[in-house]
Every structure is written in structure tokens, then in C-alpha cells.
Design goal:
The protein is an alpha+beta fold and about 1450 residues long. The chain has 33 helices and 45 strands. The longest helix has about 35 residues.
Length: about 1450
């Protein structure tokens, strides 16, 4: 063995040991050549490559061998490979253990080589001296060479052998190459002509000195010759095997490269030795390729059995290189073991007689001569695919089986139209002619098993399996099955024809009297079609055979009606069975033709069978499958039967009608009512007017599903003229739609009931509209301008009202609740806004249902629109921190409507204001905390608002009322009415009680400025009130004051003081609600101790006695009809001119004596004054810089000030302050250690609390400091948003020592007048409550002043910036130590997400100030430290606190 190189890269001999050294190399050879060997890595690579090559050859060859051959080859390969690797392992172990021996062997070898070199050198020198140099002589001088070198500088006399051996010759040119190849091509052609060439090698190509023989599907060989001598043998240059296995070969070569090389050498040897070289080459390669093709087909067969066909194909015999025999359609294997099993074989073999032929195919039994193309394909194997060969074979046999089946059908029906498709062996049999492809029975032959397989669209799989089994057993049974399928297909056609119609089909029907009824005598082949919208009706289709034509059916149609018992489980009972006319299709077509002829059309009907020369139409299967007669019958019944049902219901309810009428030239149907039954709840006059205006009432069906009824009502002489463009014609069309439920029959009783309910709604609304139409010519002009009729469609009345007609009110009758329903909205530019009357929507609806008078409703809307617009501007959002419970939210204003004209306002759940909307543009306002029955009693849950009467009088227009004529007017009311006056009142009362009954329904039965008398149609006089009368009746009817000043029933008359009149009169639970008592269903009912029914005509409703002596409303000095001009739009000089600001021409208010019940007497205000009272506006009397940013209304400021005054009184009792008794009403006086304080409402406006401070020692305080303290209290403490905790913090400041309070006042001055400290970088704000951004020491809203041994308070510093920059604010908690006099920042933990830069800087500045300015005894450093902080604090750029 050769030496092996170790890990140190030396080479060791692979012989028996170190002694086996090779022979010494000749002198001059390299050292590495002296001991030749192989590297161990190279040896391992050789072994691995050899093993991989053998594995590759095995992978290519083993799949084509038997299982035993594969096992033998694998064992032999494993044995050889194991021996090689065992030897390699032994060599590696020996090489690793022979280190020292190897070194010694190397040393010995080197020494031996040196000795050999020495000896060899001596021997060679001796040989030269003895042999070669004995006769040696020096040559003569080379004079020619010397001359050449000296003269020319070159040596041109070198031997030419050096040039011939070292310098290569010049390559031949391209032209020489082309010439040589051309000559070689001529030689090849000559050789081919003179050589005996087999005919299979005729496909040859000569080019580039080579000849290429190609036999398709076998091989390709390229040959050439090495000379032009005829005896020069052929030289094989390249050989390629063209046999491919496209199904199982995966694109790999079938012959290994080593096998190709072997065949190449074999063919080349034959070319050298044989006399007919090309013939021998072809025979050799052809036999190899045929054997390879046979092997490929066998491999494909095995894979086909393993993967797809299974036992359906079997290998009968296989001789490698000879033949392959396969069997298919083995019926025993398939499962049909009946009789002798038929076996079909396909044999592929090599022709032994003529080896040059391709593979030969034979079939057993022979293929029938049915189709030459199929037989031709089944006899070829050039595609080299055994599966395709088998498919071609069974394809031909399947075609033969279908031909036999078609012959059976031809014998049964001579006009059979079945046909065979050859692409996939299929027999297509028309079942019911004319027949489409989807309705034909398709019979296939399974190519794998040879069994019949059937397919019919829509037929269940179980039936198909039964037909297949029967036909495969006996092909003649197909006739019986075709008869059954014909009736099945007829049923399917009927079902498909009515699939788009609302029906349910079934082959059977459970009937209680099936056997006794004629329906039981029908044939077995029938179909029941149920009309889903009319579940009591069925269409029955009966089918019969046509004897003359086995592929046709005859149909008969019946109409069946059933009745259902009450129980759900009991079957129905058949009632009527009647056959349709047999020529119904001709009747339908004849009707259509007459209709088209009548309309003048000349279009020919597309399916008319009555043509003179009938031709068989070329219809598709889908068109032929449509049964137009059945579809027409079902559609006709579905369309007409609902009308019949509706007609029966109308007749059962005794509603006269004209019956079913045909409209639209026969295309639609309708039912016209002759008279509609009268409605309950409407007068006879209204019913007659409605019947006279109704011109027509028609019922029609609409919609695709025929479940929608439309009732068309045509009216004439509409009583109202609306502004809608759609309602301007002489007639009005009203469409009522009714949708029938799926669970109910179309045209049932429910449709008629819904129509009668809608008719009742129309009649109820029509009655109101008639009354409204009668009153329209004489209603006041302001209501004409105020409102307009936008829409009246007999179902809904929509009125638009307002100055711009931007608000709308809709009135309609709700049949479900049996009352009128009112909805509000906005239109035009105001669309999307809220209607101001939404607040009293519930009250308006209840009022209208009690008295359905549209004029009265418009009057209420007119009287309440401006007040409600003002009321809706009040804030109603809940707010936190208003009381000491900072986490409790209180609603600022709560709007509680009591009636359409009575609105109650609750302020922070403490104070209550009652607003009564009256006609003539005024409202009456009183304190709602006082009971309506007794002014000395307070409503539970509310507190009287002190000073409310004085505050409201400030908004009274001097031209409207002369309320303030004397100070004692409320305490000294006019004297009671005398006896003469009583007689006149009684005489006037009697005709007024009879007036409503005399003038019922007559227009103008009410004053022009008030709603009609039906406004109080339910009022009954009380015996205790017979002597009382409204102020409007105190004037004669013919007097000017009576004509101009007669107030509406909505006018409110305030009463004088209690017990001032001796006339007993009941008071109403809604004292000033002239539009009726409080709605019991209203969510805002008033609390009252008692209530008694009793009203007087022509005046506000009053009921229930008061505990005290009642007063007469009509004699109140505040009544506008008695003491002041009427505030009518045409008479008031200030009408429409009042501004939003408080009137400047009002005289200063007079001080009224304090009476606890004074505010219970209503105050009359105009709408403009109410708007000023409730509109948010700046605080009067304050500079714009001092007023806060919170805008609120004067009423909110007054009530807030009253609440703050109430809180202050409670705080004084809790704090260490001394309360001083005061004789002045509404004034609180208290004192601290250094100051006397007086708190009262501002007498000029009554909208702010004012603090007046007087020092105990006049020398301690400057007047400017006291003014700052007073102004700070008015603007920052007691002002909006009126928080109790700000008062607590401020009172704590007042209780501080004077020197501390003085510094706090200086800080307040900086807050009130920031412009006076322009040199400072920050603005300051004294935080009386803890802000949300403050350190979390207490909940936000808690009093921010703590005064004990140390004083803690909070300041908010806001950086002075330009307008474009965002202001930066920080909260600084400051603690002042009274003992040491130091001012520092309180050490309060900050929130986690807050920055610590600003607090650190503030703390450093305050500490530095404390170090530089040590406090003197009795001196406070708060203001100085804060001022220094405001001057020196600078945040980093871009820094946020």
C-alpha cells in the first residue's frame, strides 16, 4: 500500500512496516518523490465518493427489480462497504500508534539516501574519468558564432530541434477549419451511401464532421470517421438514450452514466469488428431500448396498482425483456361474482420474429370493430404510458356496452333520441321530451370497473344506487326505471315552475276525509301545491301517461279548499275539489290577444301555439321545463284569493262595497268601499262632513310579495289650506298601507281593523280641524302672524309657528293609546335645534287631550314661547363643590313644568320660583316655596328667598304696571266689594254660565285675545264661588275697557294679602295656572295639603279652600285690566322695543316693608323683562377687570347671593366670630378681634353681596386696605359660582391676626389690580378652595385656608406672557409660622406625573428670602416673600410645572 500521511502532514508507507523502504530515487529528483504516498483525508474522500456512487446506482436500479433482488443487492453493498471501512479503521489506528517508529524510519531513510547519493556520485565521477573523458578534447574555437554575437548581438545558430520541441506550431485558421469539416462531411456522406444502412436509421443529420442518428423514443447516436480511407472504422462520439418515464420517473434519467459508458464501449467495439457496423449498432441499441421500455411499463403498472387502480388491474405475467400481460375489468374482483367471470387482458411484448419492430399490443378478447379511431389508439404504445393504454382499451369496450344499451332503448321506443358522447363514454337519454341537458339521464361506464354509473340532476343518491344495481344486473330493466323517472321529472318541473311563487309543494297531504272525498280517487302520480299566503287553498296537479309517446305526460289541474280544526295536531278536512278547465291555457292566451288587439299593438305573442303552421320550437331545457299553465293558475289564485278574503271580511263586518273590480285594462284588481262605518267619539256633524268630503275609498295589493294592502282615500273640499305645494289641488289623496304578517292570511280581519283604526284617527283629527277652520276667520291677528298651517294630510296636522316659522308642532290621533299625540320640532334655518316647547310637551299633550282646541293650543304656544326661550337659557348642568360636601353634585337650575303655562324653577334644590305665562306678553312670578293654599306655610323641601319681591320689582316696567304706588299697598288692599257690586256680579255671572252652551261650535264665542270658551268647557261653578268673577267681567261688554282689556282665561290676577277679603273663595292647586289643574300624570306635581274641585266661569281655575280667609283675585291692585294699560302689541308703547339690558328709565326701587309672605304675591313682568332676568350677562356695577369669567343671569346672581348669605350665617355660628344682632332685614353683622363686618345685598341691584368693614381701631387700617377687602369679598368670595367653601376660607382669613390679614389684603390687591404691579413677572390669585392641580393634601374644593399655630394657604401664580404664548400657571402651597415669622413653601408630596422643577425653584427662592430678611417681632413676611417670589421666579425655557 502507498504511504499514508499523518496529522502532522508527514507521509508514512502503507506497507508492512518501516523496513519496507522504497528503492532510492535517481539523482536530481525531488525529496517528496522519493517516498510516494496518499494523504489520509484523500483516502477517506475516495472511500466516501465510492460509497455514494454505489448508493446512487442502487437507487436508480433497485425500483425496477424484484423484492428479493433488491434485498440481495443491498446486502452485498453493505458487506463491501463494511470491509473497506474496517480496513480504513485499522489503518487509522496503526498510524496513530506508530509515531516513534515512523520518526526512526524517516531518519534511517534520510541517512540511507545520503549514503546512496555519496556512493552514486563517486561512481559516476569514476565512470566519467575512465570512459568519457579518456579521448576528450577541447573543440576548436567557434569563430562564426563569435562573429555573430559580436557583430549582431544575437545567436542564430541554435539547433532547430529546440524550436520544434518547445515552441508550439501556429493554429489553423477559421477558413481551414471550415474546409476540413466540409471535406469530412463529404467523406461521411460517401460512407453512408456506400454502407448498408437500416431503414430505422433513416432519420440522420450530417453536420460539422459528424453524423447524428435519431430513433424517436429509443436512442440518439453521434458518429464520425478519423480518415477518408473506407477501411477506417466508425467512431462513436456520443450516445443518448431517449426512453423516458414521464409518469414515475420524476424527470430523472433512466440509465446511469456508468451504464451509458458501458454501452458506449460495447457499441464502439461492435463498430470496430462487425462487417455491418451500423446495422449491428441499431440492433444492439434497439433491443436494449425495448427491454428498457418494457421495464418502464412494468414499473408504471406497479405504481398504478399501488396508488390509483388497486385490484382493478392485475399483472398476469411479466418476463423481463420479453412481455408484460395485464388484466382489467375482473368482475370477481369488482364484486359481481355471477356466473363465469369475464376477464379482459392487455399484452405488451417484443416481436421475437422481427426484433427491429417496436412493442406489440394484443387484446383478449379482441376489441370490437365499433370505432376505428378508438381501436387505433388502443393498439399503440408510443406514448409509453400503461395507464393511457389501459384507458384507451376500456374506452373502446365501454363504447361497445353503451351501444348494446342504446339498442335496448331503440327496441322499446322507435323514436328514441338518445345519443352517445365519445369524449367520455356517456349515453344521454331524454326522459320527458322536450328535454334539456340537465333533465336527461346520463349513463356512464366506469373505466376502472366497467360498471354502469348513472347521474340525474335532483335525484337522490339512494334511488340512483338502486337504478345502477338493477341495470348492471340486467340492462333491460332500464325501461321500467325510465317510466318511474318520467313522473318524478314531471313533479320536479311543476315544482320549479312555481318556485318563484309563494307556494309549498308536497306529494302527499294528510286529510281526515281522504278516503271518502273525491281527492282520494285521483291517480297515484299527483302533486299538492299549498298557497302560503292562503293556507286553506291548494292546487292539485294530476299526471297521466300518453300511450302514443312514452316520453310525454298529460296534466290535469284541480282547485282544493280545506278547513283546519281548532287543534294544531288534527289533520285538515277537504271541502271542495274542482277541476280547472282543460283549455285554460288557450283562454289565457286568447284574453291576452284580445287585450293587445284592443290596445292597438301588433306584436305577436311569443309562445302562442295557435299559429297556422306549427313548428317545433328550438327551446333550451330550462324553457321547456317551465309549466306556464301551472304558473298561471297559481299566480291567478294567489292574486285573486286575497281580494276574495278581504271581500268576505268586509261583508262579515257589514261594510258595503262593490266587490272585486278589474283595473288597468285587466292588469290589476281593486275593491271599492261604498260607505265607511261611523266612528265612535266623533259628532254626527263631523261624520256627515267627512262622508261628504270622501269621494273614493279603494283597496289594492302592492309589492312583490303581495302582502301589502294600500287603501287609497280621495277627499274633496279640504277644510284647511296649507302652504305645502303637494296640497294645493281640489282633491287630496291619502294612502294607508297595511303589511300582513307571515302568520296571518292576506286580506284577513286584522287589515280591516287597522283600516278602521286609521279611519277613526282621520275622523278624530278632522273634528279638530273643522273647529279650527271655523275659528280661523276670526282668530286674533297676532295668532295669524304667529302661525301657519304647513301640512294637513288628514292623518297629521303640522303647524309652524314663531316669528320665523322655525318651530313646528304635529298633531295626530294615536289609535293604540286612544288619545292625541303631539310632537315638536324645528324646520328651516332652525332645523337641528331644539324646540323650546319640548320642556312642556307632556303638559301640552294632556291639555290638548282634555280640550282638543287648536286655537287654544296656539294661544298657549304664543304665550309661552318667549318665556320658554328665556327659561331654556338657564344652566341646568350639575356642578361639584357648591357646598361643603365637595363630592356631591348639585343642579344649578331644575326646570319643573307643572302645566302648559306654569313652570317651576328649582335653584340648587333650595329655592323655588313659579313662573306663570299669561297672555298679552306678560308673566307672573312668585316664590314657589310658599304654599298655594296658605302663605304662612312653606312647601316641604324649599326655602323662601328673602328679598325676592324687591328684586323682581326692579324688572317691572313702569308703563306696564303701577305696582309701586305706595309702600303700604300690599298691607292695605282695597276694601271688600260692597253689596251693590255683588248684585251686579251675580247678574253678570248667570248669562256667562249659559253662554258656552248657546254658542257651541259657533265662531267668535270667545274674546279675541283669548282662547275659545271650550278652554274651560269642563269647569263647573262652586257654590262658594258664585259671588266671585274674573276681572275681565267687571267691564261692560260695550265699554271700551271691556272691549280692549278683556283678559283671556290665561291671564293671571295676583291676590292681596291673606284674610283681607271677607268673600270665601276656593283656591286652585295650580293657583295661577289658568289652563287647568295640574296634570296628575305630570312628573312635577305640586305639593299641596288639600285640593277641592271648584271653578268659576270666565276666570282662572281655582279650587280648594285656604286655611286662611281667601282673597278675591279680581280686586288685586296688580291686575293690569284695572290699574294699568293693556300690554297688547297694538297698544303698549314699549311692545317690541324692550332691550336686553335693564331699563334705564325705571325709577329707583322703593323699600317695601319686610313681610315674610310678600314674595308669594306674583309679580307681573313683560317677556323682555323676563329675558333680561334669565339671560346670562355681566355683573352690573363691577368693572370688567373685577368681574369673574363666569357669566350668569341676574336671577342666578340674586339666588346665589341669597344662598351665600345663608351659608355665611351658618358659618359665623361655627367659626370663632361674634354675631351681632341687626334690626335691618337681610343684613348680617358680625365682628372679629379687629374688624366689624356688615354683609347685605347690594341695594342698587340686589345681585351681589357687599361687605362693609369698620376697624375697631381706626389707626390700624388704611381706608384703601378696607376697600380692597370689601371688593375682594364682593367679586371673589360671594360672587359666581357661589361656593360655600370660599366663605369658610374667607371667614378664617378675617379671624387671623391683623398683621397677617393685612399681608393677605395686599396679596388680594395684587390679584384685583394686576396692572399696578407691572414690574412683577407673575400674576397672583388667592385660592380660597383647593384647586384640582394642587398637591394632593385634600380633595379639590376643600377650603384652602388653615389657621392654627401655623397658617397654610394656596396661591396660583400665572406667568405674564404675550397674547400668542400660552400662559403657565403653578400652584404654590405656602405655610407661615406665626412663632418664627418665616414664610416657606409647604412640604407636600407631589403627584407622580408632575414636574419637580418649579416647586424646587419656588422653595429655594423662599428659603433665600428667609435667610436674607430675618423677621422682626410683630412683623409678617407673607406679602414680602410672595412679592419677592413673583419678581424672581423664572422657569427654564420650555419648562412646564
Amino acid at each position: 500500500m502507498a504511504p499514508v500521511q499523518l496529522e502532522s502532514h508527514q507521509l508514512v508507507p502503507a506497507g508492512s512496516g518501516p523496513a519496507s523502504a522504497p528503492a532510492p530515487p535517481p539523482p536530481g529528483t525531488a525529496a517528496t518523490a522519493a517516498s510516494p504516498g496518499y494523504r489520509l483525508s484523500t483516502l477517506i474522500d475516495f472511500l466516501l465518493h465510492r460509497t455514494y456512487a454505489e448508493l446512487t446506482v442502487l437507487a436508480d436500479l433497485l425500483p425496477r427489480k424484484t423484492d428479493m433482488e433488491r434485498k440481495i443487492e443491498i446486502v452485498q453493498f453493505a458487506s463491501r462497504t463494511r470491509q473497506l471501512f474496517v480496513r480504513l479503521l485499522a489503518l487509522v489506528k496503526w498510524a496513530n500508534n506508530a509515531g516513534k517508529v515512523e520518526k526512526c524510519a524517516m531518519i534511517s531513510s534520510v541517512l540511507d539516501q545520503q549514503a546512496i547519493l555519496f556512493v552514486d556520485t563517486a561512481d559516476r565521477l569514476a565512470s566519467l574519468a575512465r570512459d568519457a573523458l579518456v579521448h576528450a578534447r577541447l573543440p576548436s574555437f567557434a569563430i562564426p558564432y563569435a562573429i555573430d554575437v559580436l557583430t549582431t548581438g544575437s545567436y542564430p545558430r541554435l539547433p532547430t530541434c529546440i524550436r520544434d520541441k518547445i515552441i508550439p506550431p501556429d493554429p489553423i485558421t477559421k477558413i481551414e477549419k471550415q474546409t476540413t469539416l466540409h471535406q469530412l462531411n463529404q467523406i461521411l456522406r460517401h460512407r453512408l451511401v456506400t454502407t448498408d444502412l437500416p431503414p430505422q436509421l433513416a432519420n440522420l443529420t450530417v453536420a460539422n464532421g459528424r453524423v447524428k442518428f435519431r430513433v424517436e423514443g429509443e436512442f440518439e447516436a453521434i458518429l464520425t470517421v478519423m480518415g477518408d480511407d473506407p477501411d477506417v472504422p466508425w467512431r462513436l462520439l456520443k450516445l443518448e438514450i431517449l426512453v423516458e418515464d414521464k409518469e414515475t420517473g420524476d424527470g430523472r434519467a433512466l440509465v446511469h452514466s456508468m451504464q451509458i459508458n458501458f454501452i458506449h464501449q460495447l457499441v464502439q467495439s461492435r463498430l470496430f469488428a462487425d462487417e455491418k457496423p451500423l446495422q449491428d449498432m441499431y440492433n444492439c441499441l434497439h433491443s436494449f431500448c425495448l427491454s428498457l421500455q418494457l421495464e418502464v411499463l412494468h414499473s408504471q403498472t406497479l405504481m398504478l396498482i399501488r396508488e390509483r387502480w388497486g385490484d382493478l388491474v392485475q399483472v398476469e405475467r411479466y418476463h423481463a425483456g420479453k412481455c408484460l400481460s395485464l388484466s382489467v375489468w375482473n368482475q370477481q374482483v369488482v364484486g359481481r361474482k355471477t356466473g363465469t367471470a369475464s376477464l379482459h387482458k392487455v399484452t405488451i411484448k417484443i416481436d421475437e420474429n422481427d426484433v427491429s419492430k417496436p412493442l406489440q399490443i394484443s387484446h383478449e378478447p379482441p376489441l370490437p370493430a365499433c370505432n376505428s379511431k378508438l381501436i387505433e389508439r388502443a393498439m399503440k404504445i408510443d406514448h409509453l404510458s400503461v395507464e393511457k393504454l389501459l384507458i384507451d382499451s376500456v374506452h373502446a369496450r365501454a363504447h361497445q356496452k353503451l351501444q348494446e344499451l342504446k339498442a335496448i332503448l331503440k327496441g322499446y321506443n322507435a323514436n328514441d333520441n338518445s345519443f352517445i358522447e365519445t369524449a367520455l363514454p356517456t349515453l344521454v337519454i331524454p326522459i320527458l321530451e322536450p328535454c334539456g341537458r340537465s333533465e336527461c339521464l346520463h349513463i356512464f361506464v366506469d373505466l376502472h370497473s366497467g360498471m354502469f354509473q348513472l347521474m340525474l340532476y335532483g335525484l337522490d343518491q339512494q334511488t340512483l344506487d338502486d337504478i345502477e344495481k338493477s341495470v348492471n344486473d340486467d340492462m333491460k330493466r332500464i325501461i321500467t326505471w325510465l317510466q318511474q323517472l318520467k313522473f318524478w321529472l314531471g313533479q320536479q318541473r311543476c315544482k320549479q315552475s312555481i318556485k318563484h311563487l309563494p307556494t309549498v309543494s308536497s306529494e302527499t297531504l294528510q286529510l281526515a276525509n281522504y278516503a271518502a272525498h273525491p281527492v282520494g280517487l285521483l291517480s297515484n302520480h299527483k302533486l299538492f301545491i299549498k298557497l302560503t299566503r292562503l293556507p286553506q287553498y291548494y292546487i292539485v296537479v294530476e299526471m297521466f301517461d300518453v300511450p302514443s309517446n312514452p316520453t310525454q305526460l298529460e296534466y290535469k289541474y284541480y282547485f282544493l279548499s280545506v278547513s283546519y280544526p281548532e287543534g294544531d295536531d288534527n289533520p285538515a278536512t277537504a271541502v271542495l275539489l274542482q277541476q280547472f278547465k282543460p283549455n285554460i291555457e288557450e283562454l289565457v292566451l286568447d284574453t291576452k290577444s284580445r287585450r293587445q288587439a284592443k290596445s292597438g299593438t301588433k306584436r305577436k305573442l311569443s309562445g302562442d301555439p295557435c299559429t297556422t303552421e306549427p313548428k317545433k320550437p328550438k327551446r333550451s331545457g330550462e324553457i321547456c321545463a317551465f309549466n306556464k299553465v301551472l304558473a298561471h293558475i297559481v299566480a291567478m289564485c294567489d292574486t285573486n284569493m286575497p281580494f276574495i278574503g278581504l271581500r268576505m271580511e268586509l261583508s262579515s263586518m257589514e261594510i258595503p262595497h262593490q266587490g272585486l273590480q278589474v283595473e288597468g285594462d285587466g292588469f290589476s284588481h281593486a275593491i271599492r268601499l261604498l260607505k265607511i262605518p261611523p266612528c265612535k267619539g266623533t259628532s254626527e256633524e263631523t261624520q256627515k262632513a267627512l262622508d261628504r268630503s270622501l269621494l273614493d275609498c279603494t283597496f289594492r295589493l302592492q309589492g312583490r310579495n303581495n302582502r301589502t294592502w294600500v287603501a287609497e282615500l280621495v277627499f274633496a273640499n279640504c277644510p284647511l289650506i296649507s302652504t305645502s305645494s303637494r296640497e294645493q289641488g281640489p282633491t287630496r289623496h291619502v294612502y294607508l298601507t297595511y303589511e300582513s304578517q307571515l302568520s296571518e292570511p292576506v286580506g284577513g280581519r286584522k287589515v280591516v281593523e287597522m283600516f278602521l283604526n286609521d279611519w277613526n284617527s282621520i275622523a278624530r283629527l278632522y273634528e279638530c280641524v273643522l273647529e279650527f277652520a271655523r275659528c280661523l276667520p276670526e282668530i286674533p291677528s297676532h295668532l295669524n302672524i304667529f302661525s301657519e298651517v304647513r301640512i294637513y294630510n288628514y292623518r297629521k296636522l303640522i303647524l309652524c309657528y314663531g316669528t320665523t316659522k322655525g318651530s313646528s308642532i304635529s298633531i295626530q290621533w294615536n289609535s293604540a293609546h286612544q288619545k292625541f299625540h303631539i310632537s315638536l320640532g324645528t324646520v328651516g334655518p332652525n332645523s337641528g335645534c331644539s324646540n323650546c316647547h319640548n320642556t312642556i310637551l307632556h303638559q301640552l299633550q294632556e291639555m290638548f287631550n282634555k280640550s282638543p282646541n287648536v286655537v287654544q293650543l296656539l294661544q298657549v304656544l304664543y304665550d309661552t314661547q318667549a318665556p320658554l326661550n328665556a327659561i331654556n337659557k338657564l344652566p341646568t348642568v350639575p356642578m361639584l363643590g357648591l357646598t361643603q360636601r365637595t363630592n356631591t353634585a348639585y343642579q344649578c337650575f331644575s326646570i319643573l313644568p307643572q302645566s302648559p303655562t306654569h313652570i317651576r324653577l328649582a335653584f340648587r334644590n333650595m329655592y323655588c320660583i313659579d313662573i306663570y305665562c299669561q297672555s298679552r306678553g306678560v308673566v307672573a312670578i312668585r316664590d314657589g316655596a310658599y304654599s298655594l293654599f296658605d302663605n304662612s306655610k312653606i312647601v316641604e323641601g324649599f326655602y323662601p328667598a328673602p328679598g325676592l319681591k324687591t328684586f323682581l320689582n326692579m324688572f317691572v316696567d313702569s308703563n306696564q304696571d303701577a305696582r309701586r304706588r305706595s309702600v303700604n299697598e300690599d298691607d292695605n288692599p282695597p276694601s271688600p266689594i260692597g253689596g251693590d257690586m255683588m248684585d251686579s256680579l251675580i247678574s253678570q255671572l248667570q248669562p256667562q254660565q249659559q253662554q258656552p252652551s248657546k254658542q257651541t261650535g259657533a265662531p267668535g264665542a270667545y274674546p279675541l285675545t283669548s282662547p275659545p270658551t271650550s278652554y274651560h268647557s269642563t269647569v263647573t261653578p262652586s257654590p262658594s264661588m258664585m259671588l266671585t268673577q274674573s276681572p275681565g267681567t267687571l267691564h261692560a261688554a260695550n265699554s271700551p275697557s271691556g272691549a280692549l282689556r278683556a283678559p283671556s282665561p290665561a291671564s293671571f290676577g295676583p291676590t292681596p294679602s291673606p284674610s283681607s277679603l271677607g268673600i270665601t273663595m276656593g283656591q286652585s292647586a295650580n293657583f295661577t295656572s289658568p289652563h287647568g289643574t295640574i296634570d296628575p300624570s305630570s312628573p312635577y306635581t305640586m305639593m299641596s295639603p288639600s285640593q277641592r274641585a271648584g271653578n268659576w266661569p270666565g276666570s282662572p281655575q281655582v279650587s280648594g279652600p285656604s286655611p286662611a280667609t281667601t282673597r278675591m283675585t279680581g280686586m288685586s291692585p296688580a291686575n293690569p285690566s284695572l290699574h294699568s294699560p293693556v300690554p297688547d302689541a297694538s297698544h303698549s308703547p314699549r311692545a317690541g322695543t324692550s332691550s336686553q339690558a335693564m331699563p334705564t328709565n325705571m325709577p329707583p326701587p322703593r323699600k317695601l316693608p319686610h313681610r315674610s309672605w310678600a314674595a308669594s304675591i306674583p309679580t307681573i313682568l313683560t317677556h323682555s323683562a323676563l329675558n333680561i332676568l334669565l339671560l346670562p350677562s355681566p355683573t352690573p356695577g363691577l368693572m370688567p377687570g373685577l368681574a369673574g369669567s363666569y357669566l350668569c343671569s341676574p336671577l342666578e346672581r340674586f339666588l346665589g347671593s341669597v344662598i351665600m348669605r345663608r351659608h355665611l350665617q351658618r358659618i359665623i355660628q361655627q367659626e370663632t366670630l361674634l354675631l351681632i344682632n341687626s334690626n335691618e332685614p337681610g343684613v348680617i353683622m358680625f365682628k372679629t378681634d379687629a374688624l366689624k363686618c356688615r354683609v347685605a345685598l347690594n341695594p342698587k341691584t340686589n345681585q351681589t353681596l357687599q361687605l362693609k368693614v369698620a376697624p375697631e381701631n381706626a389707626g390700624q387700617w388704611k381706608q384703601e386696605e378696607l376697600q380692597v377687602l370689601e371688593k375682594f369679598f364682593e367679586t371673589r368670595v360671594a360672587g359666581p359660582p357661589f361656593k360655600a367653601n370660599t366663605l369658610i376660607a374667607f371667614t378664617k382669613l378675617l379671624g387671623a391676626p391683623p398683621h397677617i390679614l393685612r399681608d393677605c389684603v395686599h396679596i388680594m390687591k395684587l390679584e384685583l389690580f394686576p396692572d399696578q404691579a407691572s414690574q412683577l413677572k407673575w400674576n397672583v390669585q388667592f385660592c380660597l378652595t383647593i384647586p384640582p392641580s394642587a398637591p394632593p393634601i385634600a380633595p379639590p374644593g376643600t377650603p384652602a385656608v388653615v389657621l392654627k399655630s401655623k397658617m397654610l394657604f394656596f396661591l396660583q401664580l400665572t406667568q405674564k406672557t404675550t397674547v400668542s404664548q400660552e400662559a403657565v400657571s403653578i400652584i404654590v402651597p405656602i405655610i407661615y409660622d406665626m412663632a418664627s415669622g418665616t414664610t416657606q413653601q409647604a412640604d407636600i408630596p407631589r403627584q407622580q406625573n408632575s414636574s419637580v422643577a418649579a416647586p424646587m425653584m419656588v422653595s429655594n427662592i423662599l428659603k433665600r428670602f428667609a435667610e436674607l430678611n430675618s423677621p422682626r417681632p410683630g412683623e409678617c413676611t407673607i406679602f414680602a416673600a410672595v412679592r419677592d417670589l413673583m419678581a424672581n421666579l423664572t422657569l427654564p425655557p420650555g419648562g412646564r410645572p
